[in-house]
Amino acid sequence: MNGKSIAQLYVMTAKIPEEGVEKFNEYESHVLPLLNEHGAKLERRLQSPDRLIEIHIIWFPSSQSFENYCTDPRRNEHIYLLVESGAEIELRVMKDLK
Prior knowledge:
The protein is built from 5 helices and 4 strands.
């Protein structure tokens, strides 16, 4: 690799137990606004009708931007809400096939 930072597209899937939906949404209300500060963009936020599955498609300008978002102390300050929600999170780097 030539050292250039490459934009990355992530897909996050959350499976949320019914009793954890409110905590999960509270967590999201704190952390999603931080994306813009790290140069990222929430492309799509999808939720199943029963609110138990949520999918985010998020664009980051670089892997460093993603790392900075993940280690942002303001994000970590609310991580207990995610833990208490019981959500199972799967995160994948994807490529756009357009």
